[in-house]
Design goal:
single chain; about 190 residues; Rossmann fold; alpha/beta
Length: about 190
């Protein structure tokens, strides 16, 4: 039987949180860069063949640190951008309330017309395509808490929650394997 493809899912490091309308442009703080660098230099598992990332700066910066430490290339995947409850310029309190409404109704569509159900299907599609491109090999995905929570919830047959998203800390990682289907090998943790 062939070895499974292993995907290391790594949430980006700590960010400076700009106003909601500019959140796509958030970058890592100095502490965030150190978090990611520390994780990369302490990495004891198989070195991934490639580091994938979303095109958002915080994900690219995270992938760049790993790529430098591991001496591996980076590939940006459009479609792995973080899901947001709204793109409107609203206060964090209003944003959080809108996000809670979305968590309560997975079919509620945000400003871009994407519900959490659609975001789940989007991340499943992209991660499955990545796994198919690297049969039996390890790869790393630098990404975002909401998408990772949606993906792992789907794999477990559970509905992701705001609490499951909030448990995914900056610069933490999980591992999943893909052979004929998906299996969670390690959840996000300390």
């Amino acid at each position: 039987m062939a070895d499974p493809t292993t995907l290391y899912l790594v949430r980006h490091g700590e960010t400076d949180r700009p106003p909601t309308e500019d959140f796509d442009s958030a970058v890592l703080t100095e502490a965030g860069v150190l978090q990611v660098h520390d994780l990369a230099t302490r990495w004891t598992l198989a070195i991934p063949d490639l580091v994938y990332c979303s095109p958002l700066p915080r994900s690219v910066e995270t992938a760049s640190v790993f790529a430098k430490v591991f001496r591996r290339p980076i590939k940006t995947v459009h479609g792995m951008e973080e899901w947001a409850a709204t793109e409107k310029d609203v206060s964090q309190a209003v944003y959080r309330e809108t996000e809670r409404e979305c968590w309560a109704d997975f079919d509620y569509e945000n400003d871009d017309g994407e519900s959490l159900n659609r975001a789940t299907q989007r991340i499943i599609h992209h991660l499955t395509e990545i796994a198919r491109r690297h049969p039996g090999r390890p790869v790393m995905i630098s990404g975002h808490a909401i998408l990772f929570a949606l993906f792992l919830g789907h794999l477990r047959g559970e509905r992701a929650t705001e609490a499951s998203k909030d448990r995914i800390k900056f610069a933490h990682w999980a591992a999943v394997e893909h052979r004929s289907g998906w299996q969670v090998v390690r959840d996000f943790g300390p």
